[in-house]
Amino acid sequence: MIRNFGSNLIKSSTLFRNQPIISTTTTTSPLFKKFTTSLPPISSTQTSEESYNFENQFTPIKDSFAVVHIAGKQYKVIEGDVIMTDKIPADVGEHIVLDKVLLVGTKNETLIGKPIISGCKVHAYIEQQAKAEHVTIFKHRPRKNYKRTTGFQALATHIRIGGIIRNEKL
């Protein structure tokens, strides 16, 4: 099932939920409780990309890069990159399609959007939901004996970029 997910993500999570678990890793440590992680099959991620491309008449663009807009920020990505963005409400292992593509470039041509390219999209997979680096905030007023230290740790999502695709009609 593929559905709209916000204004710039399309989510196809049912492909992973119905698949059997291929590898299960169990880790025990004296500091942590015993936990089990499961990964979706590698072949199903390629199948979901290929089926999405076939159903919507998209073709992959080889040896290209794209500038995508995710959560108010722009990222230059190529196939296989792992980027860290602000938290995206999606499950780990899900396949999403980023449709706010601002620029696509290859050795031979460059497509520039005004402001986005309507016929280009980028496949991505949620790798991990984690916290970003800790930021320490220190305030002080000179000669007033005022010192305050606080901290902040934002929620982040690690995304692996799949393929950059283009509408055949474009």
Report the helical percentage.
10-25%
Radius of gyration from the alpha-carbon trace, in angstroms: 20 Å
Averaged pLDDT: 80
Q: What is the element string, with H for helices and E for strands?
A: EEHEEHEEEEEEEEEEE
Shape descriptor reads elongated
Q: What is the strand tally?
A: 15
Structural class: mainly beta
Q: Number of DSSP helices?
A: 2
- Given as residue ranges, the uncertain stretches (5+ residues, pLDDT < 50) are 1-29, 31-44
What is the beta-strand fraction? over 45%
Q: Termini separation (Å)?
A: 26 Å
Q: Largest beta sheet, briefly?
A: 7 strands, antiparallel
How is this structure best described in words?
The protein is mainly β and 170 residues long. It is 11% helix and 52% strand. It has 2 helices and 15 strands. It has helices spanning 14-17, 42-56, and strands spanning 3-5, 9-12, 23-27, 35-39, 58-60, 65-70, 73-78, 82-86, 95-98, 101-105, 110-112, 120-131, 135-141, 146-152, 155-167. Strands 1, 2, 5, 8, 9, 12 and 15 form a 7-stranded antiparallel sheet that branches. The protein has a 4-stranded antiparallel sheet with strand order 7-6-10-11, with no helix packed on it. The two termini are 26 Å apart.
Can you summarize this structure?
With 170 residues, this protein is mainly beta.
Topology record:
Blueprint: E1 3-5, E2 9-12, H1 14-17, E3 23-27, E4 35-39, H2 42-56, E5 58-60, E6 65-70, E7 73-78, E8 82-86, E9 95-98, E10 101-105, E11 110-112, E12 120-131, E13 135-141, E14 146-152, E15 155-167
Antiparallel strand pairs: 1-2, 2-9, 3-4, 5-15, 6-7, 6-10, 8-15, 9-12, 10-11, 12-15, 13-14
